[in-house]
Amino acid sequence: MNLEAAFRTFPILASDRVILKKIEASHLEDLFEIYNNENVFTYCGIIPKHNKDTVKNMIGHFERDFLKKARIKWGIFTVQEPDRLLGIIEAFNFNQKVNTLSVGYYLAEQQWGKGVATEALKLLLPYLFNEVNINRIQAEVMLRNEASKKVLQKNGFQQEGLLRQAALWSGKGIVDLEIYSILQQDQVNHQDS
Description:
Elements lengths: L2 H5 L5 E2 L3 E5 L5 H8 L16 H16 L3 E8 L8 E9 L4 E8 L8 H16 L4 E7 L3 H9 L3 E12 L3 E11 H9 L1
Parallel strand pairs: 5-6
Antiparallel strand pairs: 1-2, 2-3, 3-4, 4-5, 6-8, 7-8
């Protein structure tokens, strides 16, 4: 794992459709719209935030987590609207001993069903495998979160199994989770298919 590649400077990733970049203070209104919506976090271990100042402070927390080399939270933008925040995709739980990390993502409700999360993850995976040299990327998903499962499957993740009563998620209590993963070798095979 090359943590230096991930945390040297904030990584900006772009495809012909999607841009992943740092969330700035100028994105506060869009960020608040995401965090203020209960529906966005139906299947996430995140409690919605209904106070704009709280959300404003979170932007600083994103920066702090990056500087501590603990988590990278990218804003998801489109090439057509590079300053309109559509959602967040993140890499966290960096484990150097086994060369693995976790990913998660959530979108503004108006962006659901448009392929935005699928595109963002498709852009992120080669960066994590090739630049950061990760071997295994995993995601934990609540059982009824079918949309998230589709995003993972479209990107070559395999369902590994059910983690029963495995995590305490804020606002949800103790939850069952399905675990999905993709290995560096799988990604090569997925690109070829």
